[in-house]
Amino acid sequence: MKLFNSHILVLAALVWASLGTVALAFSREEYASALDKSLLFFDVQRSGKLPKWQRLKWRGDSALNDGRSSNVDLAGGYYDAGDNVKFGLPMAFSIAVLSWNSVEYRTNLRQTRQLGNMLNTIRWGTDYLMKANTGPNELWVQVGDPNTDHQCWQRPEDMDTPRPAYKVDASRPGSDVAAETAAALAAASIAFRYIDDVYAGRLIAAARRIFAFADRYRGKYSDALGGVVCPFYCSYSGYQDELVWGASWLYKATRETSYLQYLIQNGNALGGATNSVNAFSWDNKYAGAQVLLAESVLQGVKGLQGYKDRADGFICAVLPRSISPRNQVQYTPGGMVFSMGQLSLQYVTTASFLLTTYAKYLSAARRTLDCGGRQVTPAEIFSVAHRQVDYILGNNPRGLSYMIGFGKNPTRLHHRAASLPSIRAYPQKIGCKQGFEWFNSRNPNPNVAEGAIVGGPDQNDNINDDRNNYSQMEPATYVNAAIVGVLTELAVGRQY
């Protein structure tokens, strides 16, 4: 977690050679291994009393008293990145995207024997998000003071910094974080449907309640909470995109006319049917909502064409110029989608997920995509996502895999738990400042943060393996969440 503005500059793309058929850079077994690791990273990030099904064993229980000072139980959930703060906005986004992956690629997850791991990972997040909703118009959205936390380098199991809890309510609205939470719960309700109908019912009931709060009391949560969330997770894009995103998931989960009419009637005012964007991130959800709703248009639902038009524009903008004359996104010399220099791989994984999912929708509808007069096939769209995943896994100019535990990796991840000896290896408490002895060491991290995808290379495919280099060496849950579905397609050998 670090600050960056998600408004993406539109850059001219480098011309790629004709893609043709993408040769497998890795075997299906290797993609299956990467898939397993992509979910294992959430074990690294888990907060609270660890469950019996926790697979990664070097982590321990942490932050068991979260919320107690405010007379609320906020133990559980996930740390966002390499710190020990629980930020509600990126956590809810991570769970929403994981749930979308589960909904779209359930068959693949079952075939690769990862469905149980996926649902366990989602449920750990949704259990936390539901108990954070302590009243009709009250949602706890953060635990931990990031300013204090960033002055220490401690394992989650040791941290003794203040753990204040922060909420939004009717007098301090946070439509963005509340609507994002509603989206996560609504999406998860579909993931659990027919597996645990009672739990799915609780999820959708909470999603309805929290979305109503988000819509009735409008405002940016970073305006209400100020320096507690800024400049770390400021709501740069505003809250309108989250209202569209939340309503989109409530419509998909319920198919109720009221949510469809909300999207139709508010499409222009909230920007969902009019705003064109070139990135999908923890901050800006328009592209995700537009792609999600495009499926409904392809299935014959009326009134949402503006959303599909914007989804078409997003896909055409992200595709390289060799495929799309309407390209608007830069590619590095080595072929990586490049949108921002900080946590650059966030935009690679989210773009890859949307490309793959849109290719899936088009294939089911037997349609192609018109990009400036060029008819682009689902296979061509998926080939770009495939290349991006291969780049992450090591098919890049540096020959490094940016997924820890897979292939040859950087070794100095900017991550407290990974960079300090585990409590099993070093049971003595490590103090706030004491941990910087390990932080400043040139030695590799003592713990392997399995599956963590690092922040990523710069626009020239370069990366500096240094713990101080948080913009390139810090992982985050929302980077990993978006890669799962694409990996399932590659692991099962999906053909478009």
From TrEMBL:
Keywords: Carbohydrate metabolism, Cellulose degradation, Glycosidase, Hydrolase, Polysaccharide degradation, Signal
Domain Glycoside hydrolase family: 31-487
Signal sequence range: 1-25
EC number(s) from the headed UniProt entry: 3.2.1.4
Top enzyme category: hydrolase
GO molecular function (one): cellulase activity
GO biological process: cellulose catabolic process
Entry protein name: cellulase
Organism listed in the record: Ceratodon purpureus
